[in-house]
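Is this the right way to post structure tokens for a design question? Let me know if I should format differently. Anyway, here goes:
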């Protein structure tokens, strides 16, 4: 159930409703909106009588939620959510441009890439320190050492750091460095990890599982929101289909569908989506045209030598060209790419 408060409801009205929910043994989730606040109720097994709240001061309406996700849905919040990453807004007019290597490999590799992507217009540096690899015999990431390099790269460039958490064990180390904690496709259904990042307030980039439906993605987000972390950014990164010509099938239709169903921002990862560098620019432009709130692109100074995902990584000069094209498409859909960096 959702309690929709009147626009003129006071803080005390909201508090009284939350207290009432808690005394009933349930959990109250305040979801502020531009016009009004909604309060989600979780923890109830059966139905709750809407009359319980109807006469309370400041309450507009109590509505049953028909969708399995309560807090991620549009009913809870009509306006798009904006997630602030240390002042950089994801989900506003400006597109989030996230770029960097698949894996952090060395200081030289990281800082060269970081400077190049910043120069091209990125505000966020991506780079995995803990890598979930299909094969146990391939490079598993620089781990803690990689986190140290990411921290250093942030202080040198001012870029916000997006890095992946592989498990609950290393969450504490990752969260000390990450401005955005990435939950990878393979972990979208790791419910203990979702709950653990839900306990934090650090923004979370939640990638769609390799064979997850859009509803399953929203339910995974719900796990994080239900623990109180409302700073969730979704990411479409391609799903597995019968088509072997591309690494995945980038489901760009997920963008307008998610926009209809949810208030959460959604970005697109064209690199893992198509899995070959030649297609990354086209997929980025298509993602922006489809209404994505940003893109996350793999960039490497020397792709053939990359320790992971080199075949889908762009050279810095190609990434610069991509951003310039994205800037032009962004204009058509009333978005922007932010100030050009001299
Ligand atoms: C990545 O971003 O490098 C990554 C491993 O992505 P995904 O979880 O989407 O496979
Ligand atoms: Mn990768």
């Amino acid at each position: 159930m959702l309690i929709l408060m009147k626009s003129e409801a006071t803080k005390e009205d909201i508090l009284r409703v939350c207290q009432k929910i808690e005394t009933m043994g349930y959990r109250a989730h305040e979801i502020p909106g531009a016009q009004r606040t909604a309060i989600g109720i979780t923890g109830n097994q059966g139905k709750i009588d809407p009359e319980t709240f109807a006469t309370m001061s400041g309450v507009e309406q109590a509505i049953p939620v028909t969708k399995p996700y309560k807090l991620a849905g549009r009913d809870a919040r009509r306006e798009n959510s904006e997630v602030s990453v240390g002042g950089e807004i994801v989900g506003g007019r400006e597109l989030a441009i996230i770029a960097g290597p698949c894996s952090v490999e060395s200081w030289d590799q990281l800082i060269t890439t970081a400077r190049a992507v910043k120069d091209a217009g990125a505000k966020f540096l991506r780079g995995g320190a803990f890598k979930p690899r299909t094969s146990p015999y391939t490079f598993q990431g620089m781990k803690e050492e990689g986190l140290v390099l990411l921290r250093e790269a942030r202080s040198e460039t001012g870029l916000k750091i997006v890095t992946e958490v592989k498990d609950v064990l290393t969450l504490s180390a990752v969260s000390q460095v990450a401005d955005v904690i990435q939950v990878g496709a393979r972990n979208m259904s790791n419910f203990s990890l979702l709950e653990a990042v839900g306990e934090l307030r650090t923004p979370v980039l939640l990638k769609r599982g390799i064979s997850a439906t859009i509803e399953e993605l929203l339910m995974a987000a719900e796990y994080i929101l239900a623990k109180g972390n409302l700073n969730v950014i979704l990411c479409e990164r391609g799903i597995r289909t019968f088509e072997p010509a591309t690494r995945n099938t980038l489901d760009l239709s997920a963008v307008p569908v998610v926009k209809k169903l949810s208030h959460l921002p959604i970005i697109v990862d064209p690199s893992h989506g198509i899995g070959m560098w030649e297609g990354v620019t086209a997929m980025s432009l298509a993602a922006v045209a489809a209404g994505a709130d940003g893109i996350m692109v793999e960039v490497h100074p020397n792709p053939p030598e990359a320790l992971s995902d080199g075949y889908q990584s762009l050279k810095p000069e190609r990434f610069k060209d991509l951003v310039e094209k994205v800037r032009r498409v962004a204009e058509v859909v009333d978005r922007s790419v932010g100030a050009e960096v001299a």
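Format looks fine. Someone answered above. Worth noting: The pocket of manganese (II) ion (ligand 2) is lined by residues 102, 272, 298, 308-309 (CB under 6 Å). The chain has a mean pLDDT of 96.
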